[in-house]
Amino acid sequence: MKLGILALQGSFHEHISLLKKLDVETIQIKLPEQLNEIDGLIIPGGESTTILQLLEKYKFNLKEFNKAIFGTCAGCIVLAELGLIDVKIERNAYGCQLYSFVDDVLLENGDKVRGVFIRAPKIINLNDEIEILGKHNEDPVLVKQNNIMVATFHPELTKETKVHELFLGMIKEN
Fold first, then answer.
1. How many other C-beta atoms can be found within 10 angstroms of the C-beta atom of residue 15?
2. Per-residue pLDDT averaged across 112-122, rounded?
3. Contacts of 165 (CB under 8 A, 6+ apart)
4. Superfamily assignment of 2-173 in CATH?
5. How many angstroms separate the CA atoms of 162 and 164, rounded?
6. CA distances from 111 to 44, 114, 138 (A)
7. How confident is the model at residue 128 (pLDDT cuts 50, 70, 90)?
């Protein structure tokens, strides 16, 4: 399995480091033609507006990428804005950088992982096709629709691999 990490902006190095712990081959995706080389894609946290502008500038068409995609924080916003997952997002829902925090996320299987919420978005509306994979308090923070998974937090900033393992499981299912 070869996993692509969108490397235009954001925390792509952190995803690569975490995936090395799982012995997953990764490639930094900087050009759209590289999408043909991978089995799945991660869009990292960073600045969603910048990521969207760079996707347009370099002519990425993620709507034609029919493989699994995982977006974290800003990546979640990007996937929602592109209409690839049917959720409504409130940007910076917890406040400015000063109000960033780390807290437990309860996964649907009962496991807990640490969630790093940095100027994090919040999922404020989702439809019946969305599967909730994780919650912070009662808020959905890790969800999936078909081959798209999004997290409103940064799992790549912890040493835990459970969230990435969920994504790898999605790729193996397809």
1. 29
2. 93
3. 22
4. Class I glutamine amidotransferase (GATase) domain (3.40.50.880)
5. 5
6. 23, 10, 15
7. confident
Quick: pLDDT tens for 56-113.
999 999 999 999 999 999 999 999 999 999 999 988 777 667 778 999 999 999 999 9
CA angle, 83 then 24 then 28, to 5°: 55
Residues marked as catalytic: 73, 154, 156
In angstroms, the CA 40 to CA 59 distance is 18
Q: Which of 126, 161, 159, 156 shows the shortest CA–CA distance to 141?
A: 126
Q: How many alpha carbons fall within 13 Å on the CB side of residue 115?
A: 26
Q: Give all strands (DSSP E) within the chain, no chain letters.
A: 2-6, 25-29, 40-43, 68-72, 87-90, 101-107, 112-117, 122-126, 131-136, 139-145, 148-151
Alpha helices in the chain (DSSP H): 12-21, 48-57, 74-81, 162-173
- Whole-structure pTM value: 0.95
The whole-angstrom separation of Cα 115 and Cα 160 is 10
- Nearest CA to 90 out of 119, 70, 66, 50 is that of 119
